[in-house]
Amino acid sequence: MTAPALVEKPRVPLVEICPPAFDVDIFIAYATEQNFTGKPVYARGGCYLHPEAAEALAHAIRYAGELGLRLKIFDAYRPTEAQWALWNHTPDPNFLAHPERGSPHSRGVAVDLTLLDGAGNELDMGTPFDAFTPRSHHGAADISAEAKRNRLLLLAIMTSAGFDFYRNEWWHYQLFNSRQYPLLSDADAGTRLMA
Length: 195
Fold this sequence. Notes:
- The protein is an alpha+beta fold.
- Helix content is 24%, strand content 15%.
- It has one domain: 2-Layer Sandwich (Muramoyl-pentapeptide Carboxypeptidase, domain 2), CATH 3.30.1380.
- A five-stranded mixed beta sheet has the order 2-4-5-7-6, covered by helices on one side.
- The longest helix has 16 residues, at 51-66.
- Residues 1-9 have low confidence and may be disordered.
């Protein structure tokens, strides 16, 4: 009797999100110390998405551009290993998906972002990215009228492009039915974001 052949898991062909193909500003926060852990989680600041999410993002970029705005991306594909690192630091299910259940980020179908004005300044959203507070919720009442307008503008751009939103984070958008996409490790995706 022969042993069954091992079947190699195919890599998912993620799309690198970078200019000039995608007219966005990229600041991958988890590749820097400027995130809630206070230290880099990724070894490098690559920005990747599943092809379907990349296509939706291209629509969002166009819609923002028609309004004289640009998108600034803080995070996109997040290897499962990174999700564990974030969860182990701050196991808060209101703002982080448990790694066993899996985050849409770890499936390559979520993006964290904000809007930039024509001069490259971030629009006021009422809280910074990754502020783990009720003020980050889409329905937060205790933010300025300007921040509410800006959040609604980002919401309109992203949902018009085909993204769903997460109610607790004004910056987080994901494809609908995100659980239909497989969870990806760094090796699965071939991105080498982790050290």
